[in-house]
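does this look right to u?? zinc ion version
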Amino acid sequence: MSEIPEINELDALQTRALEELKMVSDEAALQAWRVAHLGRNAPLMQVFSRLGQLPKELRPQVGQRANQVKQALEAALEERAAALRAEALHRALESERLDVTLPGRRPEQGRLHPTTRTLRRIVRIFAEMGFQVYRSREVESDAYNFELLNMPAHHPARDLWDTFYTTIPGVLLRTHTSPGQIHVMRERAPEPVRVILPGMCYRYEQISARSEIQFNQVEVLAVGRNITFSDLKGTLNTFARRLFGEQARTRLRPSYFPFTEPSAEMDVECFVCGGKGCTVCKGSGWLEILGCGMVHPTVLQNGGYDPQVFSGFAAGMGLERITMLLHRIEDIRYFWANDVRFLNQF
Amino acid sequence: MKVPLSWLKDFVEIDLSLPELAYRLTMAGLEVEEIRLVGLPMPEGAHEFKIEGLSWDPDKIVVAQIEEVMPHPNADRLVLCRLNDGRETLTVLTGAPNLFPYKGQGPLPRPLKVAYAREGARIYDGHQPGFVLTTLKRAKIRGIESFSMVCSEKELGISEEHEGIIILDEEAPVGMPLVDYMGDAVLEIAILPNMIRNASILGVARELAALTGKPLRQPPLPPFERGASIEGRAAIQITDPELNPRFVLGLIEGVTPRPSPYWVQRRLRLAGMRPINSVVDATNYVMLMLGEPLHAFDYDVLTARAGGKPPTIITRTAREGERLTTLDGVERVLEPYMILVTDTAGPLSLAGIMGGLESEVTENTHNVLLEGATWNPVNVRRTASALRLSSEAAYRFVRGVHPALAPEAVRVCLAYMAAWSGGRVAEGLVDAYPKPQVDPEVTLSEAEVQRWLGISLRAEEVADLLRRLEFTCRVEGETVVARVPPHRLDIGEGVIGKADLIEEIARLYGYDRLPETLPADPLPWQRNQPLLEAEEALRDVLAGLGLQEVVTYRLTSPEREARWLAPAEGEYLPPDYVRLANPIAPERSVMRRSLLAAVLEVAERNARLTERLAFFEIGPIFLPLAGQDLPEEPLRLALVLSGMRHLPAWDRAEPPLADFFDLKGILEGMAEALHVPQWRIEPASHPGLHPGKCAALYSGERELGYLGELHPLVKARYDFGPVPVLVAELDATALLSLVPERFEVQGVPVYPPVIEDIAVVVDEAVPAAQVEAVIRQAGGKLLTRVRLFDVFRGEQIGVGKKSLAYNLTYQAPDHTLTDAEAAQIRQKIIRRLEQTLGARLRG
Ligand SMILES: [Zn+2]
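got this back:
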């Protein structure tokens, strides 16, 4: 206890005010407390106004103490006010809580057809190796579809393709994109050629889960003075690794196409079973992905390139087949049926 | 081609496991599609081939002999066999009809060798369809206990045959495990069209010898009796050597057609052919073995047709209206181009395809004239496809059989005929060879190998590889001169021959050993492809605007397209189409002329599957051009929009339906995103669209296509329900050609704009576009934005009127507009609206 009664009074004031502040729980009570303890008529303020009536020697001591109490009360007020604001904010936030497990609102979204998506990937990979897209017509002449590709009339290899003929003699629906090889070579000879030829082709077949009457083929063609079978192997392996993954193992098997020689079939190790054998690869561990070979001298000749000087390679794959492998699609009919339940998944 | 392993081993030693063997063949272009075990054990470990079939347990399936066939006491259709399996003698029950002739004869003087399965053996069930595995168990059949059986071919997986049991050849050793006696495996090999030489056991063996370095061996011919010379007994006349380069005849007399030895029948069955009798079997056996199709004539029939004189075989094309009944009993009407084997009395056989019924070998044939010939592949192919006939012979001749094979095959076949059917082989052959095959000689340099394959091989190495395939090679410096062996026709001359040799070198060297490189050759100059790039940009823009891309059939029918193409009202004359000569079905008989018709079909099929239909396709249509064979194939863009504007959500149950302005907004967004120059959309009409909801998209004066709502009468042709269907079809080729390769943008304004709203009342008939055009014209450069934000109709403004409310932005590029300037522009706009459109400002 001080010997000065005014000091004791100030101490008591402070203690009481801080006690009361603890009870304050909302903004209105806080304002009332401020009026009661820091307002013009508050006891503390009256201490200030009475300061002049005190003995001169006591004035500094009491004045200093009164200031301390005022600062303490103001600080306490500010602290309390902040706490109340925080509480109010938290209450408000709590009251705005959503059930975030409700579904989101989707913007109307369009998608590309799966064949467009796969084609773009394939085109991009070959574009980086210098191959540019070249397109040609779908209704073709027998000459471009067969004869100029080393399949004269009655060539048994024509049996490899079941062909749709039109009512105009010598006009058919192309069975492969290879007619484009002749078109592009004739257009560019003797310049080197690096093109990728995508497009719709047609075959006379019963439509089933495995076969369609129209299908997209993607061919690549390189012609130059120094194109080798090893280049074919390197280019196609690069492609397979980029499309199917760095680990993809491939193999080339001898095969036969009338427009290439040597000809080969490329298999990629089944990425469904890792080569152990499964239903997708029919137990073999390998998936056939494309046919390829060195451009046949007759075809080079027909394209306007001297086969003694020029050489080339070509490869062709089925776009739907690749897409089916990539996404494990089991029915080729999905592609042209355009059922939204299929398309929505891409 | 089905290749029994045991047969292959006659020609080449094989010390590879089955999967290794299959791998080597596959990697050389003889793709093994399947391995069928016929007795041999399943190879151990992982492998890359489909292997199926039955392995015979050596302890449980053995050679046994039936010593006596006794009647069953309780059943007429069963017999009891006293059988010795090398360990013991026991009684076995069977119902095999081919044992009935021996029933009740007492002990057989020559016991029958059979395939005997003991209790617990795993075999196929002979009585179930297909191949179902079963384990032999003890059972009582008609009072007699049975626990083992003598087997049919089906039960052992050799063939489908299960009528009778197998009766083995007499030398089969009793007690020997059956797998050791005749265990086998069949390789199913896909023969490439240029490898017809390998559609034979010898061909596959030759490839294998080349791959493994083992020698190719010729199995010795069986001993046979020789008779008098063929000279003067038959003659040959070839009328067209182009069609029939070679014809060889051999003669055997005194044969007795009978069942072939069991091992022959088994091999034929494993190779996929049905045994007939020992004479016919010999021709098939030699064809499978050597690759030369042979044909046997009944010599006595030919002699009779020649009036008792020695027959003359004449090969010629058919005469008008000539007919021949082939072996299959069908009478064929022949065309004048078809090459035939005939005699002086008329046609005998369809050359290289199928024999005639009259001169065929029967059970009663005694003397056989054997044909080995070479035919023109194109002619055989043409005839076979015209008559829809296929045969093992035609399969080979169509792909080319070397003429050198003919005399060799005839000689070998006569030897087997004599060995299996008795008789004497006449000395010599009649051989007409008017057009000898010249086997090409091809030169190939080290540099060429390098140029084609990217590997450097010395000439001597190249020659060694080719010699393995029986090429005759000589090395001249850095060049190999290779003579094609006289059994293949697939190697050409000149530069084609070089390519052919390159393939053989690559095959034998091994595709897997070739290096991997990227082309070192210079790249061509890269070309600009603005159309292709714009097309992909268009796809992205449309998908971004919320449309799903589809790809539809290009094959359709005029009827399908008429649903869209026929006008809502009035006559419809279907247009000219690219038509298929051989459509797969009537509804896929022409190439489409309308892309929208196809996308509408997609929308219709999906109408029940989703609340919002929004599709587009970019693709060609096919328009026949008068006087030209090939059609035009312009690109079109088709859009269909229908159903809800948005997908419904949990707080948005019934979104509004899409209408004309949703589609228009998409086209506006598209035109803007592609920066189509001076694009605008104006009212238009179209015979399939709602007359009041139809417009066209222009760029400048060029019309790019139309958009609108389906006419109700057109919509009624589809199953869409009561919602509006919005469609658009644009000339994509034209659209894409307008997409600029670059475009410019405006700077962002620095000075603040003045923004205000005005509402004007005009007659209902005044199009909004006209109002906006007047506003823009009057506003001039300082009017930077005009946005219609409300259209109002109501009593307040009068009947036949509408109020259009615009939000206007005025802005100057170089200073802050004053209120006075803004008011001036505003006044000008209002005055112009009043003057030109009779508009009034709405208070
Ligand atoms: Zn697999």
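Chain A touches chain B through 97 residues (CB under 8 Å). idk if thats expected tbh
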